[in-house]
């Protein structure tokens, strides 16, 4: 049993991307040093990108190490039983100064067979959207592999894909197989299965400083794609000081909590909880200690922390596995 259980914050893992910008600093207060930072990985156990604790006595230890020491206390009894010592989710903030590539993620079976990995079911919460910003999600109408390949060859793929104008507060849930791209002018909170398997199918013919295009995975994507028309937009309620259900899937549950004042939270020890602060700021009181969070912060509440109090004026995403 780990004695020193407390709410954990981790050092963001910042990623340079061809499409990245500076909003992770200007909108979310991250200490980025370049003008093309595309992602802040907030909580990760992806190989080569394992999060390290940034606060308290466990500072400097990796998420993998603390799970290894106390899997039930950190992950939760039900999560540990289901996933072993793997941390099953990946949390990120993204800044798309330009369009991301059009891509697709394989399902669990395909990802296991090809890459010995989880698939990647994910959701996006739009934190900030420039005027006319849009995303690409799925096909306009039911399609098939032949039509898709034909349009890819003719550089007319965008004509058969659905693009949707978005605004702050919109949520999209993307099951594996959904062709998608985050469009320019968006800051997004992303919650997904732990996986870094992405099949890039079209990159708008972009090249880097050396004149090279990024690698495409057109063949791998063919049987990973869901060619049906899909509904990805999620409507949700915004009852103040309540956990409003947004996404409830086998991989994660996400609630929206509009905090205004004080709320007592009680948990059963079966799953960890993650809070992403998407607007405002709040304080978490546990064991007579107070912890403060602002917009752009992400905190992991170990499963062994059963009751605590939230206080402040903030919009929070609450994520756990049910």
From TrEMBL:
Pfam families: MPI_cupin_dom, PMI_typeI_cat
UniProt keyword annotation of Isomerase present: yes
InterPro entries: Carb_Metab_Reg_Kinase/Isom, Man6P_isomerase_Firm_short, MPI_cupin_dom, PMI_typeI_cat, RmlC-like_jellyroll, RmlC_Cupin_sf
Domain Mannose-6-phosphate isomerase cupin: residue ranges: 246-320
CDD domains (alphabetical): cupin_PMI_type_I_N_bac (cd07010)
PANTHER family: FRUCTOKINASE (PTHR42742:SF3), TRANSCRIPTIONAL REPRESSOR MPRA (PTHR42742)
Phosphomannose isomerase type I catalytic domain residues: 10-116
Gene Ontology MF, one: isomerase activity
Keywords recorded for this protein, A-Z: Isomerase, Metal-binding, Zinc
Organism, scientific name: Flavobacterium zubiriense
Domain of life the protein comes from: Bacteria
Zinc keyword on record: yes
The protein's name in its UniProt record: Phosphohexomutase
